[in-house]
Specification:
OB fold (Dihydrolipoamide Acetyltransferase, E2P), rod-shaped, 5-stranded mixed beta barrel, alpha/beta, 16 strands
Length: 418
């Protein structure tokens, strides 16, 4: 038997495959839904190699090599610009392209276009499914009200002054540096206690490390006012850990208010929707804390000014009242003294008229006996010695007869004279 009979070279086999595949698929465009994997992009050379997968969970149903050649390499930049995310692995994409076979590179799907809206829609669908699951599984902690998500973390009250901060971020990252710089160089000279809880914040499994650090915050037994979760900007795929069910639940139920500063304007993650306050960047997260404390300081200053104004107004009113009262007292005293002086003048006239000398000058005389003034005849007896004082002198005499006024009652007449 001739062992070489029926044998062909590999190049002959690949050539047959190439002819067959090109005859069947040459220039025939396909729209393919697949998940990206094993991306090797070479922007300086203008081409990109990757694998396309169809998966059900972790089970792979199909795999195919793909390539974007230099003439179409611009579609990667267009996709990233339209979606705000990096063209990276684990993206579900809608691709347009053709099937080709090369004896050197094998079977490939040559990509000519990427539909960004499909990827965004698919990611939003997955994201919405997670949000719905969070609400249905934990209605006491997470619910949707008029299109907005309300969580247990959002119901926590921020302290009047934020002083003790737990910071979760990547070690030495731009987000860590930006937050620290803004916090420590604030124009109000505020000082803080800020403890770092450092871990990976992107890549597969990063959400587990973040949740682990959150656990360390609560187990530290330190009374933190705020948990801050920050990272710098990046592609939408870099935010994968913040769009997971597990981290969303951990943030929504965390016992300390959580501030997220994990992206730029176009990035809104599930964690952003679950936390107490979301800002766009680490710098803005620190600025929020500084402004929160400044608002408290300004409120205290305004209340202090209000107290001073109230006290000043009260003192002015009391002072004005005292001045008016002093005027009234002075006027009343003057009126009283004037009235008393008038009464004294009247009394003085009466006293003057009743002065014995004045009375004597009018022709009256004053009778006394034994140094006592005699006002009634009944006080004397016949033979009594009396002294009669007149205006210009005294007359001494003895009583020889007593005659009573007929108007006097009989009981006033001494028995010896009856």
């Amino acid at each position: 038997m001739d062992e070489t009979r029926g044998m062909i070279r590999l190049s002959e086999l690949t050539s047959l495959l190439e002819d067959t595949i090109r005859e069947e698929f040459l220039l025939r465009p396909f729209l393919v839904v697949a998940e990206t994997s094993d991306i090797r992009n070479y922007p300086d050379r203008g081409y990109c190699f990757l694998n396309l997968l169809e998966k059900d969970g972790k089970e792979i149903h199909a795999r195919m090599a793909a390539v974007i050649w230099s003439r179409n390499h611009h579609i990667i930049a267009a996709f990233e610009s339209a979606t705000g995310m990096r063209f990276d692995r684990n993206l579900k994409v809608l691709l347009q392209g053709t099937v080709d076979y090369s004896p050197v590179y094998g079977l490939q799907f040559q990509i000519t276009a990427i539909e960004p809206s499909f990827t965004l829609g698919e990611m939003e669908r997955q994201r919405q499914a997670i949000l719905n699951s969070l609400c249905s599984s934990h209605p006491a902690q997470i619910r949707q009200v008029e299109g907005n998500y309300v969580t247990a973390n959002q119901q926590l009250r921020l302290p009047a002054v934020i002083q003790r901060i737990a910071l979760i971020t990547a070690p030495g990252s731009d987000g860590w540096k930006d937050f620290r710089h803004e916090l420590e160089s604030n124009p109000f000279a505020y000082t803080y206690v800020c403890d770092d809880f450092l871990c990976r914040i992107q890549g597969k499994g990063a959400e587990d490390e973040i949740i682990e650090q959150m656990g360390k915050v609560t187990s530290s037994k330190r009374s933190y006012d705020l948990l801050v979760l920050v990272r710098g900007g990046g592609g939408q795929t870099d935010f994968g850990p913040f769009d997971t069910y597990e981290l969303g639940l951990a943030v929504a139920t965390f016992p300390v208010p959580v501030v997220c500063g994990i992206g730029h304007e176009r990035n809104v993650s599930i964690s952003d929707l679950m936390c107490h306050m979301t800002v766009k960047t680490p710098t803005k997260a620190a600025a929020f804390i500084n402004q929160h404390n400044y608002r408290f300081e300004e409120e205290i200053r305004q209340r202090g000014d209000a107290i001073i104004r109230l006290a000043t107004g009260t003192m002015d009113r009391l002072r004005s009242g005292l001045d008016n009262m002093a005027i009234r007292i002075t006027q009343a005293a003057r009126h009283y003294l004037l009235h008393r002086m008038q009464e004294l003048d009247k009394a003085g006239l009466i006293v003057k008229h009743l002065d014995p000398a004045t009375v004597l000058a009018r022709g009256y005389a004053m009778v006394s006996s034994k140094a006592k003034v005699i006002t009634r005849a009944a006080q004397l007896q016949v033979g009594a010695h009396i002294s009669i004082r007149m205006q210009d002198g005294f007359i001494d005499s003895d009583v020889t007869q007593i005659q009573f006024d007929t108007n006097e009652s009989s009981h006033d007449i001494p028995e010896s004279l009856g």
